[in-house]
Amino acid sequence: MEKDVLMISFSGGRSSAYMTDRILNTRWDGEVVVCFANTGKEAPETLDFVHACDLHWQGKVHWLEYDALTRFREVSYETASRKGEPFEALIDKREYLPNVVWRFCTQDLKIRVIKRFMMSLGHKHWTNAVGIRYDEPARWAKTRAIGERERWDTWLPLVDWRITRPMVLDYWRAMPFDLRLEHYQGNCDLCFLKGRNKVRRLLLEQPELAAWWIRQEEKVGGTFRKGLSVQRFMDLIRTSPALFDYEDPDIECFCNSD
Ligand code: SF4
After folding, report:
1. Can you list the domains of the chain with their CATH numbers?
2. Ligand 1 within 6 A of 105 CB?
3. Buried b (16+ CB within 10 A) or exposed e, 35-47
4. Cα–Cα distance for residue pair 138/147, rounded to 1 Å
5. Ligand 1 and 97: CB distance under 6 A
6. Atom 7 of ligand 1: nearest residue by CA position
7. Gap between the Cα atoms of 140 and 206, Å rounded
8. What's the gap in Å between 114 CA and the centre of ligand 1?
9. How far, in Å, from the CA of 3 to the mean position of ligand 1?
10. pTM of the prediction?
11. Residues 4-23 pLDDT 10s
12. Is the shortest distance between the CB of 111 and ligand 1 below 6 Å?
């Protein structure tokens, strides 16, 4: 592989943190840029983990967010949005909600934010390392396809290294810090790509999470999930807590991180 500029997409999950840690501990002949794109709807524990990783890597992480005027802004652990501000600004600008079919939140809050940041550094082409694992084959082709349309080549180091989820978990068990989240709590808290059983659990445990999503749906007059508003979801599980308590896999996307 050509040793050009390497951009690491650090999602804030354990797998991509493992990937980043291993790359940073390896000699890379070119420049290495580590980017974390914050949507504002990440769990506080994700931001704490990114911060702990950043300290461990001696300040390598660029904390980035969508900005409706300047397209992106660089923030820090201290100044990162925690109330969904970048995500809400995007919805306000588009006057539309992302959904399963049109996932512009992934595109605009993460992929384009990082792309614009890299271009602001003067880079015209780079290699993009993404933390998709060897045991996630359904995600390999889709992730590689994004790079084919863009100005980067996609590299999936965890696939090359045959890294699976148990290996990642073992790694973090041996580290002095870890992500303090369960598998259903990562990414944007009530992401519409999460299985309904995950959202049910989150809403039963943290009903306060619903307010932001309900506000966006009411403002735009639409729903993130076809035919099921967040308010209706809340009302249904309030009256029938066992509803949606069945296996309902997530819909795969660029954001999924555990
Ligand atoms: S985690 Fe879900 S809601 Fe958040 S940016 Fe990704 S697809 Fe959109």
Report:
1. 6-173 (3.40.50.620)
2. yes
3. bbbbbbbbbebbb
4. 16
5. no
6. 106
7. 33
8. 15
9. 31
10. 0.94
11. 899 999 999 999 999 999 99
12. no
